Amino acid sequence: MSLAWDYPPDRYHGTDGEVSAWLRRGSEPPELRFRSGGTCEYLATGDRTEQRFGLYRWTFGDDESGPDPHFHRSISEQFYVLSGEVRLFDGRDWVTARSGDFLYVPEGGVHGFRGGGGASMLLMFAPGGPREDYFETLARGEQMSEEQRDAFMTRHDTYWV
């Protein structure tokens, strides 16, 4: 049986394996708390995964929040709803996603998300860019001029449509 694709090149060249796993306990507090009451937990940041991916648990506050439609040029983004309802923009329409629903957005794909009522989802970026500065700056609510905001968004591979 022939596969349509091959595995990537080996990254580990040892013969016995190694002790290299790490665990983030569910009891650890979220790294970010937003003014909306939402939180963001850094499950696996790009610097921890050698830039392979970044994985975050996003929990919304009571009121609806989330970014308008946008796209990324260098990273894909994935959404997996854990609980509640999250509205996801799939490039055509806003759709309501519920527990177990998954949305994949390749590089250049227009998307957005909105949630409230304590809904939660996993948010993954691949490769694992440094999204933490993006989240932390927005959480602080820093005032920026239009030029500063444009430069910030460009630095974080975020382009509004």
UniProtKB/TrEMBL annotation:
Domain Cupin type-2, first and last residues per copy: 59-122
**One Pfam match:** Cupin_2
The name of this protein is: Cupin domain-containing protein
Organism this protein belongs to: Nocardioides marinquilinus
The major lineage groups are: Bacteria, Bacillati, Actinomycetota, Actinomycetes, Propionibacteriales
